[in-house]
Amino acid sequence: MSQRGKVVELYKMLLHLGKDYPHGYDYFRKRLHSAFMKNRGETDPEKIEKMISHGQYIIKELEALYMLKKYRTLKRRYYNEDEL
Amino acid sequence: MARVLVGVKRVIDYAVKIRVKPDKKGVVTDGVKHSMNPFDEIAVEEAVRMKEKKIASEIIAVSCGPAQSQEVIRTALAMGVDKGIHVEIPAAEYETLQPIHVSKILAKIAEKEKIDLIIVGKQAIDDDSNQTAQMTAAVLDWPQATFASHIEKGDKELTVKREVDGGMETIKCKIPAVISADLRLNEPRYATLPNIMKAKKKPIAKMTPKDLGVDISPRIEIVSVEDPPVRQPGVILPDVDALVGKLKEGGHI
């Protein structure tokens, strides 16, 4: 896949994850858009590669955030506060 | 290798604030975000891990409910389930659908598909019944391992660690069996975008309770649904005398 294709795919994946963002999809989408726009002029392939891997890292962080949020909500709702 | 059946339910998303309908016959579901019951996600994850460890050969996800229930079957397929079965139940009848009906449906499907292991979430976060696994085991006359937080499969048996009041219980049971997943069984994976796309090609079979010979006539009537009581707001008092006066008024001293 071309580097451009990789960036587009990354953007789509992040948008998809943004649907579940606690502050709402619009909040997430605006920030995501501006983050990508900020680096639109970048032409160095090495730097772009670094940015892509940073994006992959954000994806992992978001997944972990959602999982933890759900786990904590359920634990609070169904299990005693004092245990664990 | 075992054939695994997982039950998935479409419920109002855990993060949504629930509102009671003005006529007090239910809760507002129109235009509200729905998703897979979190405990069912854990059940699906466990089945998918079994497949990855080559313990399970095929995983089938079942959901009972109106047309939108297919969404959660799709999510399950995106997580790694092989095929889906949608038992279609019209919205009006779905309101009085109870675990007894679902368990009969699951049992029939398990017989039809030659299932060795049924995994369901221990309860759904909407009605909190916590009965489907137990009743399914009873209908099939299979052993049950409820509230599982660790599962190990041997040749012809399962070793399951269960969460019980104040500790853990380890049990062994024969296969076929019914398992219900507790919160700490695993951490479910997120259905990624490419996997959601791939899941669109996986098959979902449609059937009705009638096809399975299950009677879903209501056993209950919903009389009233009410909000939990709201906490009374506090007041700030100017001095100790006012406080003592208030406490006397309330009969506390």
What do you see in this structure?
The complex is a heterodimer of chains A (84) and B (253). With 84 residues, chain A is mainly α. Chain A has one domain. Chain A has three helices and no strands. The longest helix of chain A has 34 residues, at 45-78. Chain A is elongated and about 55 Å long. The termini of chain A are far apart. Helices cover 27% and strands 27% of the residues of chain B. Chain B has a nine-stranded mixed β-sheet with strand order 9-8-7-10-6-1-4-5-11, sandwiched between helices. In chain B, helix 4 crosses helix 5. The model of chain B has no long low-confidence stretch (mean pLDDT 93). The chains are: A mainly alpha (84), B alpha/beta (253). The A-B interface holds A 12-13, 16-17, 22, 63, 66-67, 69-71, 73-75, 77-79 and B 14-15, 38-39, 125, 183, 187-188, 190, 192-193, 196.
Summarize the structure.
Chain A is mainly α and 84 residues long. Helices cover 76% and strands 0% of the residues of chain A.
How far apart the termini of chain A lie comes to 46 Å
Secondary-structure element order of chain A, as H and E?
HHH
Report the helical percentage of chain B. 25-40%
Shape summary of chain B: globular
